[in-house]
Specification:
By secondary structure, the chain is of the alpha+beta class. The protein contains 17 helices and 23 strands. It has a seven-stranded antiparallel β-sheet, with no helix packed on it. Helix 12 crosses helix 13 and helix 14 runs antiparallel to helix 15. The radius of gyration is 40 Å and the shape is elongated. The chain starts with a strand and ends with a strand.
Length: 593
């Protein structure tokens, strides 16, 4: 059963900048031991040590008391009095009574730097105006919230740390996290706009279960400096909704409990558009439970068909595949032309240039191409795509160019092609070939791969194959199609026809002596054949472990030859003695050369 993990990073943009600031801030230098030197201690008997004296700063500054400040504020006119926000809402954090920020000793002075962060808000352009797109908790306590105009926020709190939002950097970080997930946790992981999806099907037992994996994942995010909310459900839509709108930071929905888990969530958890959310609010739909009893037809007319699709995806009625993050760097080369081209000769020249560049890239990486994909962009914006494949990894430009030229006739240049992109989506390791023995004449190289590639390029890759043996006594199960380049081994010693039918064909009008004589006459495909020679029988029993019908099944095979010289491979069902071994019908299974 499919199990999907949704990792949600609610404060990704803020915490990413905090993380960068933490790494960019230099560490404070360790203060050396400072001995107190004071020749004139004055009225205080405590050594001052570099000008230190308890209470001296407050005595010199003559700071007004709280009562005096209140009196000064009351004496001001009404228009000049400070707002209540500055009087009552701002407060200074009191120091710990037992853990002070500064430790004072007669022999040395150690000062610890403050670790508190200043309030931070990110400004981004939404439409034609600048808005607050993210704000930390300290900024939110000052009245800054997402969606507020940037000018209003600056006027409200002038000394707030405003920075421009960087959605591209956030996307890069999520892509790196998805790549790490593919390499470390699950082969199917993909980044979303504010988190990561992971498919845990078949992987949860490697980490001690779903709950233990989620706790390890959340601990990993905490060590990296990110706040994480995690949900596990049967569908990506349900996990996405619970991670963002669930009550707990860690939610694990048991298998089959998706409907009950997402029913109390708001409509916005279904990833609906603004228009659909407005329509749902107008019709009185507040939670997902309100949508479940409504028929799909009227609901689609009210909210739109995409809203129904999102609901079905969350419930599992419609598949929502996760496109995994690929952990490969696909070799690719590109060529932009000064003028559009449309002739076959010009396209062939561009192919040769691109293959030369791609061969250098493949040689640097120690790879060989198994498939190539060439895409050409026309002047009108349309795209022409052709592809070729090879039976073995190669980076031989001449061989690949010959294959690519077979596809030129499938390219429609239209008004002209102005851009080409050659990609090798399937590559395999390819080492350098030792040509010493070949040049000396000791080894004769006869590689059928080139011939196979050319023939497959003309008639199709599925039309060229070899027959490889499979360990089975039943003839139709004893062979299978294999790679035409590889030489199969392990063929059985008994003789088999050159042409073996996929399914045996029945014979009619058969005359034969029971129990073990070959047929003397038979009719096949409307033509009568008189047998002049025969050999057999070769008895083959059924494979009882596959199905019950083959427990006692028996086939007696014969090699027979008719008057015209045709040689056939026929068999009879049953041994001719016991009824449960077969119905004594005759069949033809192959033809000899």
């Amino acid at each position: 059963m499919r199990r999907v993990v949704s990792l949600f990073l609610p404060h990704l943009a803020i915490e990413r900048l905090r993380r960068l600031d933490r790494h960019a801030t230099p560490r404070p230098e360790r203060l050396a031991l400072q001995l107190p030197i004071d020749d004139d201690p004055g009225e205080c008997s405590v050594p001052r040590g570099g000008g230190w004296r308890p209470g001296a700063r407050w005595a010199r500054a003559q700071s007004p008391t709280k009562i005096e400040v209140a009196g000064q504020v009351a004496a001001l006119p009404a228009h000049a009095k400070p707002p209540m926000r500055e009087l009552g809402r701002r407060s200074e954090a009191a120091s710990h009574p037992y853990k002070s920020q500064s430790v004072t000793r007669p022999a040395m002075i150690v000062t610890r730097p403050a670790t508190a962060h200043a309030p931070l808000a990110l400004v981004g352009k939404v439409g034609r105006r600048e808005e607050i797109v993210a704000a930390c908790a300290a900024a939110a306590s000052l009245g800054i919230h997402v969606g507020m105009a940037a000018t209003h926020a600056r006027a409200l709190v002038s000394d707030l740390d405003f920075r421009p939002a960087q959605p591209e950097a956030d996307a890069v970080l999520l892509d790196r996290l998805a790549l790490l997930a593919v390499r470390r946790w699950s082969p199917i992981a993909a980044a979303t706009t504010d988190g990561v999806w992971l498919d845990l099907a078949g992987c949860d037992h490697l980490y001690g279960g779903e709950e233990r994996f989620c706790r390890r994942l959340r601990a990993f995010c905490q060590r990296a400096g990110f706040t994480a909310r995690i949900a596990v459900a049967d569908t990506p839509g349900a996990a996405h909704a619970l991670a963002r709108y669930g009550r707990e930071d860690l939610t694990i929905v048991p298998a089959g409990g998706t409907v009950q888990a997402i029913s109390p969530l708001p409509i916005a958890a279904l990833r609906l558009t603004g228009t659909a959310l407005s329509a749902a609010k107008r019709f009185g739909f507040e939670t997902i439970a309100d949508l479940l009893p409504v028929a799909r037809g009227p609901l689609a007319r009210r909210l739109g068909l995409p809203a129904i699709t999102r609901l079905d995806q969350a419930l599992g009625g419609v598949a929502e595949p996760i496109t995994p993050r690929e952990d490969v760097t696909v070799p690719a080369v590109e060529r932009r032309l000064l003028e559009p081209i449309g002739t076959a000769e010009a396209i062939a020249q561009v192919m040769e240039d691109l293959l030369g560049d791609l061969a250098e890239v493949l040689q640097t990486s120690g790879l060989g191409a198994r498939s190539l994909r060439l895409s050409g962009v026309c002047v009108d914006g349309t795209e022409q795509v052709v592809a070729v494949g090879t039976s073995r990894p190669t980076r031989d430009v001449s061989h690949l160019l010959r294959l690519m030229k077979l596809r030129i006739e499938r390219i429609d240049p239209g008004l002209g092609l102005e851009q080409f992109l050659l990609v090798a989506p399937h590559t395999e390791p390819l080492d350098a070939m030792d040509l010493g023995a070949v040049l000396a004449g000791e080894v004769l190289v006869r590689d059928p791969a080139r011939l196979v590639d050319v023939v497959a390029g003309r008639i199709g890759p599925n039309a060229v194959y070899r027959i490889a043996p499979i360990p089975s006594h039943v003839p139709e199960r004893a062979v299978a199609r294999a790679d035409p380049v590889e030489m199969p081994a392990g063929w059985p010693t008994w003789r088999r026809p050159v042409r073996l039918f996929a399914r045996p064909e029945p014979l009619w009008g058969v005359i034969a002596l029971l129990p073990d004589q070959p047929p003397r006459r038979f009719e096949w495909r409307g033509q009568a054949h008189k047998v002049v020679a025969g050999d057999g029988p070769e008895r083959i029993h059924g494979e009882w472990w596959r199905r019950d019908a083959e427990t006692w099944a028996v086939r007696d095979y014969y090699r027979v030859e008719d008057e015209a010289g045709g040689r056939f491979w026929v068999f009879r069902r049953g041994d001719g003695t016991h009824d449960d071994t077969g119905d004594l019908s005759w069949w033809i299974h192959g033809v000899f050369a």
